[in-house]
Amino acid sequence: MRDFSKAKRIVVKIGTNTLTKDGGVDTAYVRRIAGQISSLLGSGRQVVIASSGAIGMGVGQLQLGPRVRDIKMRQAYAAIGQPLLMAEYRKSFLRHGVTVAQVLLTAEVLNNRKTYLNLRNAIETLLKLGVVPILNENDSVSTDEIGSAFGDNDKLSALVASKIDADLLIMLSDIDALYSKNPRKFPDAEPIHTVFEITDEIVRNVGGKGSQYAVGGMKTKIEAAKIASNAGCRIVLANGRLRNVVGRIIAGEEIGTIFMPKRKLSNRSRWILNSSPAGTIRIDAGAMRAVRDRKSLLPSGVTRVEGSFEAGAVVKLNDIAKAVTNLGSSQLKALAGKHSSEIRKILGAKHRDVVAIPEDIVIIDY
Length: 366
Fold this sequence. Notes:
- The strands form four sheets. This protein has an eight-stranded mixed beta sheet with strand order 5-6-4-1-7-11-12-10, with helices on both faces. A five-stranded mixed beta sheet has the order 14-13-15-16-17. A two-stranded antiparallel ribbon has the order 2-3.
- The protein has two domains: 9-269, 3-Layer(aba) Sandwich (Carbamate kinase); 277-363, Archaeosine Trna-guanine Transglycosylase, Chain: A, domain 4, CATH 2.30.130.
- The protein is an alpha/beta fold.
- The protein is 37% helix and 19% strand.
């Protein structure tokens, strides 16, 4: 389980509380992490970093105090802090002769299939060049409330690990491990070193958000673990402040919690599963059985359409699956409950007679 000798592509996520100190970046810590990651590069591995901390650095630079709840101010802090954060990474990695690259993302980039593939190609090229991509949410221009899209970059790191077929995701946090209960409330809480399945009980036991600068918490880390596990990627959650933590994890030490993968989906299926749905298609019991049996979804099984979307959008099928629909919402409303043979009479001979094919349907959980 903790044999990472064959892990060639690794994503390292560094949380805000781990990276910062006294309102600014902890330069000594960044240097230590750069040294550890450079050692991985020296062993022939490829590494991507998902880094938080830009907002905290922006706050520290202006010295205005912890007034970071206002969205516009958080966007401003992020714009100020991001180049400062990258400057620290650049200086630290140059000590080891390693070049870094900045990649800023929004949820929209990952939800759109074209930009999603462009992003993957860009990261693949950087890795082939021996460059370490450093990813962060583009808080300054994000249309979502800051933190709602990725949760202190926990979800972002998992999406990237999934997208680039990473072998391992290391999540460095101020959290030591997953516990049986909230350790801040229950002294008898026990660390869980290995998780084979994220159960409902585990989800109920996780805590809430992080600090005033960070927005993550155990809940977002569990969500990230679910995403990465669908890519066949192992996840290790550990305290980022442990001495030589990255090297010790790669060496197989029982540090933190390891989440084992549940299933390995194709890259397209993972994109469908991880995209935000544009709407929902409600289907009857017969259509639900067909979807679970890997059959096409037909208009006859549609009972209701929620939301407005175009053909080619990712939508939910009840609460059991996501799919790329061949028909837009207005077309589906006209065809709901009708037999496939009636489609051409209503829409014309060129239209397909299925709502979604099996290859474009992914069960959310099973």
